[in-house]
Amino acid sequence: MGDKDKFIMTGDLFPPRKEERGEGATRPLADRMRPEALDDFVGQEELVGQGAILRRMIEEDRLRSVIFWGPPGSGKTTLARLIAHRTGAHFLSYSAVTSGSKEMKSVMATARDIRLSTGKRTIMFVDEVHRFNRAQQDAFLPYVEAGDVILIGATTENPSFEVNAALLSRSKVFVFGPLSDDQIVTLVRRALERDPELSAGSFSLTEDALDTICRNADGDARRALNALEMAVLLAAEGGMGEGTITGEMVTRAIQGKSLAYDKTGEEHYNIISALHKSIRNSDPDASLYWLARMLEGGEDRRYLLRRLARVAVEDVGLADPGAIVQASAASQTFDFVGEPEGDLILAQLVIYLAMAPKSNSVYTAYGRAVSDVRKSTAHPVPLHIRNAPTSLMKGLGYGRGYEYAHDMPHRLSKHSFFPEEMGERRYYLPGDQGKEKNIKERLMEIRKVIRRLREGGGEEEIGGGEEEGK
């Protein structure tokens, strides 16, 4: 029987570690500091604090299939290990990165046999469950449905998009949040005091060092402990067996902040949404912040330029027709300048759009037109506005009665240009911001003259204005 078979039979959370097999390997600090009791778990108080629902499920060994959703380093795997130590069920752990559906099906079939013969269930922890495709996730369904397997899936991606609806409906989603700075400080100080390797060196941290670790961690416990470990190693290599670690030493150890940003994941969409909404609300400062978050995270600049062109039309529109010109110019100039200097062009465009007068009239007008097209019959084009390039078409009445606008008083025809079956429609409702205020006045004047022409009125010049829609 191989090591893997022993692992499955014993139900250990992880295969034996190298040092446990006599091979003598040092584990990372983040792994060494995993707590062995719920009371030592830091963070997620609303989930595992005294009296919280998840804590009660764990303590009473009444866990059901769950999905742990949260950012890296928020405690998902750590909590799974704690469950492994407390449960009376068989406990297995896998990663969707290294395990395939064939292996999963075999293990789940074994779990079903164990339940039928002993009545004992199997808890299966699957890390990075979102990396399984839809078909692979479907393999869990019959076993979860029958109660043969209690699934604990961990994911950094939104389960609404990455986990099958059928599997999601059979699981309870628990949302993990990033750790607070105070919680990060607690973990770092605990590591200095309790970890045998760090405590042997008698190191301490300045407040600036703690602040630097917290800023770098962004709520990720693993990242914080890695930063601490690297800072201690750097101090030790410098001949310091003990002493005080400063913020400058931490900065040198971690070699700059690494932003938690996934260009294809949920954070990408969250931040572009924040940028768009900040511009829409005419807040240049917040807009620049979210732009900087995306640029520093390595976002594709062409993607940002395309999105900002959309903003120029959707949220600025005809209140400032120059916005789309600015967006186009920014795109062309960026191609000419390139990175990193071109990032300043993006910043200028963001400020311009944030400070421009706002109107979504174009966006809503087109939406109304599309709605009519989708809901109504595709009525034929009225004969008088059809083109008639042949004598046959002229004989059928194409173009008959058409009034060439340039030859008409005020350059306006009294005819309707909608299908007769539809009557008149009003899609474009201009606002009162920026240049669109002038457009609104012009449109009201045009509609006033057309109405009088249809009523047989005179040929007075376009001028004045009255309420739209009368």
Secondary structure layout:
Elements: H1 3-10, H2 29-32, H3 45-48, H4 53-59, E1 66-69, H5 76-86, E2 90-95, H6 101-118, E3 122-127, H7 134-138, H8 141-146, E4 149-155, H9 159-162, H10 165-169, E5 172-175, H11 181-194, H12 196-199, E6 203-205, H13 207-217, H14 221-237, E7 243-245, H15 247-254, H16 266-280, H17 284-296, H18 301-316, H19 322-337, H20 343-355, H21 361-375, H22 391-395, H23 436-454
Parallel strand pairs: 1-4, 1-5, 2-3, 3-4, 6-7
Helix pairs in contact: 11-13, 11-14, 13-14, 13-15, 14-15, 16-17, 16-18, 17-20, 18-19, 18-20, 19-20
Task: Provide a brief overview of the structure.
The protein is an alpha/beta fold.
Keyphrases for this structure?
disordered C terminus; 23 helices; 470 residues; Helicase, Ruva Protein, domain 3; two-stranded parallel ribbon; 7 strands; elongated; Zinc Finger, Delta Prime, domain 3; alpha/beta
